[in-house]
């Protein structure tokens, strides 16, 4: 058989050329759990920094290759996400200005859901990643990627966005004038949208979509995901009001 990472002929359990397991297969939910969702989270090495570098030099191409089998140099998607959320939490811990980053509809609403978002804003990543995965799965069916592969792709995409937002999170601790926070958030939102577009465009450019259709599909995924995010959060807010 051939190694998925380097195309070297392999007869053993590990490739003698690159060291990747020959048991590396296409992603599925059973494969993800069988091979450890958090594999590598306590072993941060050069794979962490390599993945971060790739997410800001060739994000879509690199993650497409990862999903197709070139995985030895990347850190596990779930491990990367949890590590970055932990870093963001540490930077944001005790920051009184972090509430300014919440959407207006969830600020000062006077109920426990608002308090949850204030205390654990990282929990919203779960909602964002899920709705973006659903959107990309529906609009890029021709790529023949399964739902688990779309999930992995979107975890890496949002990991890049978290890294992109770390300087913003850190800056909150040093800003005394709250009127400056909202403009900074708006600038970051535009930069984040541009990054997400770059990521998706690169990723799906390897699946023979015509450029104009690819651009339109990426825009639709990003816009619809944004809308679904707020619909989901609003629904949670209403459910919380009804149950209290």
Automatic annotation (TrEMBL):
Domain of life: Bacteria
A UniProt-annotated Pfam family: DUF3667
Keyword Transmembrane helix recorded: yes
TM spans (from-to): 74-91, 123-140, 152-175, 181-201, 213-237
Keywords: Membrane, Transmembrane, Transmembrane helix
Descriptive protein name: DUF3667 domain-containing protein
Organism: Maribacter sedimenticola
Taxon lineage: Bacteria, Pseudomonadati, Bacteroidota, Flavobacteriia, Flavobacteriales
């Amino acid at each position: 058989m051939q190694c998925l990472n380097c195309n070297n002929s392999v007869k053993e359990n590990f490739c003698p050329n690159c060291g990747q397991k020959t048991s590396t297969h296409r992603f599925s939910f059973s494969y993800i759990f069988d091979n450890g969702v958090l594999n590598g989270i306590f072993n941060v090495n050069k794979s962490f920094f390599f993945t971060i570098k790739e997410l800001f030099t060739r994000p879509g191409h690199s993650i497409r290759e990862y999903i197709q089998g070139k995985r030895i140099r990347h850190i596990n998607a779930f491990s990367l996400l949890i590590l970055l959320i932990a870093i963001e939490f540490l930077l944001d811990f005790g920051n009184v200005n972090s509430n300014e980053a919440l959407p207006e509809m969830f600020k000062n609403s006077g109920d426990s859901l608002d308090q949850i978002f204030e205390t654990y804003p990282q929990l919203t990543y779960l909602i964002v990643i899920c709705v973006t995965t659903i959107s990309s799965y529906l609009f890029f069916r021709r790529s023949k990627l399964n739902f688990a592969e779309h999930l992995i792709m979107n975890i890496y995409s949002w990991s890049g966005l978290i890294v992109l937002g770390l300087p913003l999170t850190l800056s909150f601790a040093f800003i005394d004038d709250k009127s400056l926070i909202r403009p900074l958030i708006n600038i970051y939102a535009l930069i984040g949208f541009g990054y997400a577009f770059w990521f998706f465009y690169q990723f799906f450019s390897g699946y023979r979509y015509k450029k104009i259709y690819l651009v339109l599909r990426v825009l639709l995924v990003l816009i619809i995901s944004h809308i679904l995010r707020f619909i989901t959060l609003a629904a949670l807010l209403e459910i919380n009001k009804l149950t209290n």
